[in-house]
Each structure stands twice: as structure tokens, then as C-alpha cells.
């Protein structure tokens, strides 16, 4: 098995998958470095009474960047782009279910608050972070990009693939915002509504994954031309990919629902909406 994985030809000319090397796409690395630089700049220039909180949040932010880097570079990237559909599903789960919570928690609210001083930005942000908009946007993006015509186009075209990943990440940040918002101006849902919201979020993804899992036809034929790893056939690869999206994806949501439930119970008689917020301040006269 080790020798078969040591050097595997891939679909694009001159490329290879090697356990001894780690492919880095420098455009991704440079962009992540720029984002990190912007974060540190904002941490310094926006410093105020809440500035100390960035020390506790910084590890989450850089963990989010690390997830992006290791998802879009190296072995997982090469496997998912040119070899295994199932590896692509792992990549998508990392970019939509792990990276966004880390990113949102990693950026303190006081760092973003100055952006809301512009009325147009505040209005747009208010609309884009509404739970209904977040829910609909993420699930539409997931459903549309898994249609064979769009998914196959992304596999065949690098620019389209970049757009696909950007849409996944942006819509996933939107999905998690009503659960983890760091700004009371763009508030979280109450604990009961958070649980309902995440439960409903499992349903569209489950439908898509069930369709992929039980399909009797090869939906994404681009992978059929690749040399096989461990004797996995294209149909088996598709089945595994659907199961990865279905089971681990659903378990993540159920795990977060459990955490929210116990957090809700720990607040006892406190107002469930107020206790769910960060830096919650009741409206004047409330």
C-alpha cells in the first residue's frame, strides 16, 4: 500500500501526488498571510478597552487560517482536486463546518464594530446576517454546487473551482453567524432557536448527501479517469463521499446542538436571548 501511494500520477499534465512532498499553492499562502496581516493591523489600530480579548481569540483565528491552508494545499488538495471525490467531501466539510466557527470566534466584536459605523455597511450586514438569509444562502450554495453540471465544471476549471470554494466559505460563515456572532448589533439567535436552526440545517445537506449516496449513476465522471487508490472504484468513491457528507456532517450539527442545550440549561431562569449573546446589552428602557 505504501509503494502505491508514494507516487501517483494525477489528471493534470506533469502533476503527481507524493507522500514525501507537500504541494503549496503560493497564491493561497500569500492571501492568508495578507489576511493575517490585516488582522494584526486591526488588532493594533482598533485597540480599546476590549483589546485584551484578542489574545484569547487569536489562536482560534489562526486555527481557521490553518484549516484553510491545509485544505487547499498539500495532499488533501491534490487528492480532492484530481483523484478522489470522497477526499473532496472531506475538504468541503473542513471549509464549511470547522473553519467558519473558528474564524467567527477568533475575531472579537470590537474589531468589526468600526465597520458598522458606515450606514450602508450596517444595513447590508443586518440583512446578510438574518437567520433566514443565512440558512437559505448556505443551503442553496451547497445544493447548486453539487449538481453535476456545476460540480463537474468546477473540477474541470480552476477559476470556477476557486469561485466554488469562496462561495462555500462565505456562505458557511453566514450559516454560523446566528450561532456565534460576536456583535450584539448583529445578534445571535436565542438558545432554543439556535437548536431549531441547526436541526433544520441538517436536513438540506442530508437530502443532497442521500441523493449522492444512493445514486446508481456516476454523477461526477471527472474522477473516473484517475488511477485508482486502494482499488476504490469511482462508484465506491462516490458512495463514500456521500456518506462522509451525510454522517460526519450531521454529527457535527448534533454535537453543537447538544452543547447549546447544556449551555441553555446552565443559565436556568435567565433570559434565553440575553444569555446567548456576547456583550449583551438590553435596549434602553427594557
Layout of strands and helices, then pairs:
Blueprint: H1 2-6, E1 8-9, E2 16-17, H2 26-45, H3 53-72, H4 74-82, H5 85-106, H6 109-112, H7 119-128, H8 131-145, H9 148-156, H10 158-180, H11 191-214, H12 234-266, H13 272-276
Antiparallel strand pairs: 1-2
Helix pairs in contact: 2-3, 3-5, 4-5, 5-10, 5-12, 8-10, 8-11, 9-10, 11-12
Describe the structure.
The protein has 286 residues and is an all-alpha fold. It has one domain. Helices cover 70% and strands 1% of the residues. The protein has 13 helices and two strands; from the N terminus they run αββαααααααααααα. The chain has helices at 2-6, 26-45, 53-72, 74-82, 85-106, 109-112, 119-128, 131-145, 148-156, 158-180, 191-214, 234-266, 272-276; strands at residues 8-9, 16-17. A two-stranded antiparallel ribbon has the order 1-2. A hairpin with a 6-residue loop joins strand 1 (8-9) and strand 2. The chain is globular, with a radius of gyration of 21 Å.
Amino acid at each position: 500500500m505504501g509503494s502505491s501511494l508514494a507516487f501517483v500520477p494525477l489528471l493534470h499534465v506533469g502533476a503527481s501526488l507524493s507522500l514525501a512532498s507537500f504541494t503549496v499553492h503560493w497564491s493561497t499562502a500569500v492571501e492568508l498571510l495578507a489576511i493575517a496581516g490585516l488582522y494584526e493591523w486591526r488588532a493594533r489600530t482598533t485597540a480599546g478597552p476590549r483589546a485584551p480579548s484578542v489574545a484569547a481569540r487569536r489562536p482560534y483565528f489562526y486555527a481557521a487560517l490553518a484549516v484553510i491552508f491545509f485544505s487547499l494545499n498539500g495532499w488533501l488538495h491534490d487528492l480532492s482536486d484530481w483523484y478522489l471525490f470522497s477526499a473532496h467531501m472531506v475538504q468541503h466539510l473542513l471549509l464549511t463546518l470547522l473553519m467558519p466557527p473558528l474564524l467567527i470566534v477568533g475575531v472579537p466584536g470590537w474589531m468589526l464594530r468600526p465597520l458598522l459605523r458606515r450606514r450602508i455597511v450596517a444595513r447590508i450586514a443586518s440583512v446578510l446576517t438574518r437567520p433566514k438569509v443565512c440558512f437559505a444562502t448556505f443551503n442553496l450554495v451547497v445544493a447548486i454546487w453539487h449538481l453535476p453540471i456545476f460540480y463537474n465544471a468546477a473540477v474541470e476549471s480552476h477559476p470556477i473551482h476557486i469561485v466554488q470554494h469562496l462561495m462555500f466559505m462565505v456562505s458557511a460563515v453566514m450559516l454560523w453567524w446566528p450561532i456565534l456572532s460576536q456583535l450584539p448589533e448583529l445578534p445571535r439567535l436565542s438558545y432554543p432557536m439556535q437548536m431549531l436552526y441547526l436541526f433544520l440545517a441538517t436536513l438540506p445537506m442530508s437530502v443532497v448527501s442521500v441523493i449522492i449516496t444512493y445514486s446508481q449513476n456516476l454523477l461526477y465522471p471527472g474522477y473516473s479517469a484517475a488511477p485508482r487508490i486502494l482499488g476504490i472504484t469511482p462508484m465506491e468513491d462516490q458512495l463514500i463521499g456521500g456518506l462522509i457528507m451525510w454522517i460526519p456532517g450531521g454529527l457535527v450539527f448534533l454535537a453543537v446542538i447538544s452543547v447549546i442545550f447544556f449551555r441553555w440549561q446552565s443559565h436556568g431562569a435567565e433570559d434565553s436571548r440575553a444569555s446567548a449573546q456576547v456583550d449583551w446589552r438590553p435596549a434602553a428602557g427594557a
